[in-house]
Amino acid sequence: MDGRIQRKVSDYLSTAFGVRHLDTITTAGLIRHVAADTSQTASLLDNVEASMKGHGSNMIAVVAHHDCAGNPVSDRVQKQEVANAMTRLAETYPGAGVIGLWLNEQWIVERIRTG
């Protein structure tokens, strides 16, 4: 949701993966809703499903950032939530590539690796 990260993430994905168009699903604190079941989880996963089936998306980027007002927990906790969300999405959409991205204090995109 945070406008401070939108262009940086778009530029990163365009450069790293040759992506020309992005479907963007946003809500405040999104990763906590995907990492664990909340009242918003089903709706968010419905949006992912629409992107995958309706637009042919084959890659999912799970993104979080420092100083998140919608998920005011430590960076360490957010990075773990990204990893948990990545696992959930990879299990739900086995044909999709799932990556995790973190924007640090300098708003630089870093990859989050699991396992």
Detailed description of the structure:
Helices cover 47% and strands 16% of the residues. The protein has four helices and three strands, in the order H-H-H-E-H-E-E. The model has no long low-confidence stretch (mean pLDDT 92). The chain is globular and about 35 Å long. It has 115 residues and is of the alpha+beta class. The chain has helices at residues 3-17, 30-35, 41-55, 75-92; strands at 59-65, 97-103, 109-112. The protein has a three-stranded mixed sheet with strand order 1-2-3.
Question: Descriptors for this entry?
Answer:
single chain, 115 residues, 3 strands, 4 helices, alpha+beta, 3-stranded mixed beta sheet
Q: Shape, please?
A: globular
Q: Structural class from helices and strands?
A: alpha+beta
**In terms of per-residue confidence, which ranges show pLDDT below 50 for 5 or more consecutive residues?**
none
Tell me, rounded to a whole number, the average pLDDT: 92
> First CA to last CA: what distance?
27 Å
Strand content: 15-25%
Which oligomerization state do the chains in this entry correspond to? single chain
Concise account of the structure shown:
With 115 residues, the protein is an alpha+beta fold. Helices cover 47% and strands 16% of the residues.
Explain the layout of strands and helices:
Blueprint: H1 3-17, H2 30-35, H3 41-55, E1 59-65, H4 75-92, E2 97-103, E3 109-112
Parallel strand pairs: 1-2
Antiparallel strand pairs: 2-3
